[in-house]
Amino acid sequence: MAEAEDIFLRAKQRTFTGLTEDEQKEWRGPFCFIQAADPQLGLMKTWREGDCDGGGDEWTDEVQLTQQAVEAVNKLSPRPKFMVLCGDLVHAMPSTQYREGQERDLKVALRGTDPSIPLVFVSGNHDLGNTPTPETVAQFCNAWGDDYFSFWVGGVLCLVLNSQLFFDASACPDLRDAQEAWLEDQLQRASQGPGVTPKHVLVFQHIPLYLKTPDEEDDYFNLQTATRQSLLGRFKRAGVKAVFSGHYHRNAGGLHNGLDMVVSSAIGCQLGEDTHGVRVVVVTADQVIHRYHSLEQLSGRGMDEDLRKLLQA
């Protein structure tokens, strides 16, 4: 497995080929990246059989879909700056029967990602447990990298968050408080300095702030109202342009008061009418434009032509 692990070392170090961190803080023109979510190895069979509480003893379909996504992303030109997977990497909960095998096979499926495309991993509820503990968070960090962190790419500040600590941190309040303090510092620096002012600020997390509107009722698939409104206010004050998430296994979200809540459907199991796919995101000096592409479309035709033209500006 040494070869497979190399790709995760790159992600943990969050390096971007050929440039230092300070150089990545400089705007260098339009670029694209890929946002994906919920490969969730093991869910498709359990969903078909109506046993979603089980860990899933079969995940061949999800492995093949992940490999298809990797092959499609590798063919894109211009090359994406990175690919981020927004949580629920596998279906089996921590320390359950199929967890080790699902993680192993996902790493093998991702091994084919071109070395020039760093992978960024976001923790989801199945990765940490619905009520995470210090032990489950440590397990995730050991397997996939930090559960929250920031990185710069092409003049854009990206914040990766552990949304499970927003949802239920009753078993790890110290970890929640640590992320809160870190996040507040990151947001203040983004809006007030010191240092470089980012061209855009983007957030990546698993659970959406909301699915359609900020005032919607609490649901399994969104963050609770008080937490949601607090984060919305903090993000807007810091100039966050967009929040990218998964969890819903359907495309949703919407733009409200200048903040774009982007909810992307899954590489793996679909719970609605969408198809297996990923989201192509184009970043220009003034905009962050994104569109969900089916794996079939991305494999056959690449990204939509209007998005490609934005990268040539």
From TrEMBL:
Source taxon at top rank: Eukaryota
An example Gene Ontology molecular-function term: metal ion binding
SUPFAM superfamilies associated with the record: Metallo-dependent phosphatases (SSF56300)
Locations listed in the record: Cytoplasm
GO cellular component, one term: cytoplasm
Reaction catalyzed: O-phospho-L-seryl-[protein] + H2O = L-seryl-[protein] + phosphate; O-phospho-L-threonyl-[protein] + H2O = L-threonyl-[protein] + phosphate
Coiled-coil segments: none
EC number, as in UniProt: 3.1.3.16
Keyword Metal-binding (UniProt): yes
Location of the Calcineurin-like phosphoesterase domain: 71-250
Gene3D superfamilies: 3.60.21.10
Cofactor names: a divalent metal cation
Keywords recorded for this protein, A-Z: Cytoplasm, Hydrolase, Metal-binding
Similarity section: Belongs to the metallophosphoesterase superfamily. CPPED1 family.
Protein name per Swiss-Prot or TrEMBL: Serine/threonine-protein phosphatase CPPED1
Lineage of the organism: Eukaryota, Metazoa, Chordata, Craniata, Vertebrata
